[in-house]
Every structure is written in structure tokens, then in C-alpha cells.
Amino acid sequence: MKVTIVGGGLTGLTAAYYLGHAKPDWQIQLYEQAPRFGGKIQTQQVDDFVVELGPDSYLGRKTEMTDLITDLGLADTLVSNETGQAYVYDRGNIHPIPGGSIMGVPTEMMPFVKATLISWAGKVRAGLDYFKKPYPLDAHGDVSIGHFFRYHLGQEMMDKLIEPLLAGIYGGDIYKISLLSTFPHFIQVEQKYGNMVKGMIAAKMSHQKAGVSKAAKGAVNEGDVPRAGKGTMTDAQFDKKQSSIQRTNGNLKASKGTASQSGMFRQLTGGLESVVSAIVEQMPSNVTLTTKALVRDISYADAVYRYNVNGREETSHMLVISTPPATYKDWFIRDTGFDGVRNMEQSSCAIAIMAFDKTSFDGELKGSGLLITRKTDTPLTACTILNQKWPQTTPDDKIVLRVFIGKPGNDVVERYSDEELSALALKEIQRIMNFKANPEWIKINRLIHCMPQYNVGHRAAIAAVREHVKEHYPNLYLIGTPFDGIGIPDGVKQAKELVHLLTKSSTT
């Protein structure tokens, strides 16, 4: 059996790695268009700094990534983030995220009443959700995140809390992003209990009675609904209080450290790209890896896939595609059955990482960073204080800020040069965090059209594409960020599930 995998990001590499081990008699060829493997994962060593130019961690409770790391022999290099208070910057003021909230939904009275972020009018409006009926979903049971939470909690809660917490994860327009494809458990809770506040309180109490760890488990089953506020986190941007993790008798445990609980995100001491390097180095001998390989003109006839790679015609019995949506514009051109993935919107962002000497830094560092409301007049969306979130990445006498640039409708990421983006990021974060110190160095990474947008209708559109492939393209498999999650563990999970499917089907 000859298998071709297109796409050498972590998802494609994981599929090749496990399939090569499971099927040593299969001939597997992986092509990557870029000059390096790993996709958005990119780690640089700058003197004594470990610098992540792409994602800086993964969600630990999604264990597929940790299992891969263990299989590669890297479990002893795993660390977890430090946890602490998360903040929101809104038009000139920095506020703590209210404690006792679950992704912005209040579940405890006093922390919400005392919150400085939300006005009294906004608090009263959010409380009225207790009397709301479920939102009228569309024919596919879907709704945008923005419309759903504005209906339940009001415009102010949407603008100041929900949107900064949730929109940053997907980098898009919260009034277009599908709740069903991103946080379906909110819909389940609402449908079960009638409204969000009542449902989240009930879900929280249920888990407390069951003895489930709130920090590790989140709020609702296995959904992407982690608790926000002091001691826990919302996305891979804010947490404080490190505790290293180790694998004991096959289970991950957090070492006690000095004080509070371990964070919910995981990193490796050598950076995330150490996983990519380990996969490449340990790839089975029946797998061939090729970079700088442009695959074009994919077609299927007579039970064989034909394609062009760097001007050379090739064939394969099985084809696995693990690439961004834009690549589908060059494949199956006349087949509208792929439009559901081909026409997906993608957002762009940039990351500016800047290092300062501690002795010369004149600002106040709160928690491990802050989120920035979309209505604040700045193209910045968030800032992480890396030396407090991931202290192992930074020398003790340094401060490192990781600044995120790019909002829907703002094109500075695509229009500005690296020098202009660096200057913009520094000027804006100096203004927001109120300091004047200049960095020793700045690194910019521009991620153009890097984030597939799971807009309303995404799940139905992807289901239609898969049904079309199943009917017309035997032995074609589509995996990666356009389909079942944009997180690192989501890609690893898709790859492992595919290998399990292929291994099972080839033995029956």
C-alpha cells in the first residue's frame, strides 16, 4: 500500500509517525511545502531565552498531546504554567476578571457584585438571564457566540468579558463564530436548565458534589469551558504559578511547588518544537519526509490518486490531506463538494515578543498578562508576561512580554512591515501597561491567514464535505485545523483516530 500525506505540520507528522509504526509494510510519503516541518509551531533559542513564535502551550486536560510526548520519550521535559489572576484592559483601565465565573458567566454572587469591570447596569442585565428562555437556534442547532451571549448576558458583558475571553481563542468575529463548533456545552447546559446562569451554577455544583477538580476539569463535562478568574485560566494566554509535571505510573501529576495549584497548560523545557524534532528523528524507516514540496493537480481515477509534486507526476493508493483551507483552492478545482472547506474564512495575527532588563523596567506587572477588549482603540488583543507564566523560558533578571496584534477588520498585520509592527506593538503596550522602558530585543512573527474560522454552519458544512468524500473519493482522508478543533491536541487526536481507523479497517 502506497500512502501519501500532504502537510507536515504536527497533525500530518503525527499521522505519519503512528501509521508508519502500525503498518511497517506500507510505503508512506509525506510532503511539506515549507522549508521546515511543524507548521505554526516554531521555537527559537535566543541566548538564554526559549522563544515561541507560534503557540506557546497546549491544554493539558486534552491528553492526546501528552501521550504523544510520552511516546517520544519527552515526558520528563514537561512543565505546567504558573496560575494566578487574569486581567482585562478596557479603554484606559485594567480590571481583574471576576472570580467565580465560567468563561465570563457569573456563578457566584459576591465576586460578580464586587467586580470593577462591569457597571451596575451591566450586572443587573446579566442577572436578568435567570428569567430568560433558551435562545432560538437555527435549523442546524447553531448560533454565533456573540448573539448567544448578548441575548443571555447583555451587551456590556459581551463587550468587556465574553468577547475578550472567547474571541481571542479563534481570532475572529465573535458574531460569526459558531457556538456549536467551538463551545457546544454552553448550548447543552442552556437547553437543559433553561438559561445560562442557572445552568452554569447547576453544572458547577454538580461537579463539586462529584469531587471533580474545578481547575483541571473546567465546568461542563469534557467541554472547552474552563473557569475564569483567580487560580484558573481561559486560554493559553494567562496563568500564573508554575508547577512541573511528571508521569508516575502512567499518570500526570503536578508537583506541589510553593503554593497554589498547577496551571492547566503544558509546555516543554526545550519548547514545543522539540516535539516536532523528536517525531522527525524517530520517524519509522518506511516513512519518507520531503520539504519544499508543492503538491498540485490532485485527481482520482481507476482507484488511484494522481498528483503533481514540484513538476513530477506521482500516484498513490491512499491520500491524507492535513493542510489549511486555502490549499484546497488548488485541488479538486471543478468539484464543488469541497467548497465547505475551500471557502472557509481565515484570520491573521502577529506576535511581538520583547525582552527587557528587570532593573530598568519601570512598569507594574500584574498576574501573567491581560486581555484587551475589542472596543479599546488599539490593534492589540492581549499580552502575556512570559517570565511569570513560563519562568523556565526566561533568565531570572529579564522580563519578556508576548504581545498579540490583529483584530477583525484591522489590516495592520498584513499591511505593516515587521519594523512597523514592532514599533506599533511596543508603543501600544507601553501605553496600556504604563511604562517607558525599551526592550533589549523584539521578535516578530506574522501569521497570515493562519486561523480557520468556525463560523455559524461550520459543522454542517464539514459534514457535507465528508459525506461527499465518502461517496466519491475512496481512501481520501481530510484532517487538520479546518475540521475538528484548532488546538494542538485536537490535531494530534485527529491523526491518531485516523490511524486507528486505517489499522482497524485493514485488518477486517
TrEMBL record:
| Known EC number | 1.3.3.15
Q: Which NCBIfam families would you find in this protein's record?
A: proto_IX_ox
Which species expresses this protein natively?
A: Veillonella atypica
User: Which cofactors does it use?
Assistant: FAD
Q: Which GO terms describe its biological process?
A: heme biosynthetic process
> Which Pfam families does the UniProt entry name for this protein?
Amino_oxidase
| Keyword Cytoplasm found | yes
Catalysis: reaction(s)? coproporphyrinogen III + 3 O2 = coproporphyrin III + 3 H2O2
- In this chain, the stretch annotated as Disordered covers 223-243
Record GO terms (molecular function): oxygen-dependent protoporphyrinogen oxidase activity
Please indicate which superkingdom the organism of origin belongs to.
Answer: Bacteria
Q: Which UniProt keywords apply?
A: Cytoplasm, FAD, Flavoprotein, Heme biosynthesis, Oxidoreductase
Q: Which named protein is this? A: Coproporphyrinogen III oxidase
Give the UniProt subcellular location, in the record's own words: Cytoplasm
The enzyme's main class, written as a single word, is: oxidoreductase
List the pathway annotation. Answer: Porphyrin-containing compound metabolism; protoheme biosynthesis
A GO cellular component term found in this entry reads: cytoplasm
Q: What role is this protein assigned?
A: Involved in coproporphyrin-dependent heme b biosynthesis. Catalyzes the oxidation of coproporphyrinogen III to coproporphyrin III.
Q: What is the lineage of its organism?
A: Bacteria, Bacillati, Bacillota, Negativicutes, Veillonellales
Which family does the entry's similarity section mention? Belongs to the protoporphyrinogen/coproporphyrinogen oxidase family. Coproporphyrinogen III oxidase subfamily.
Q: Where is the Amine oxidase domain?
A: 10-490
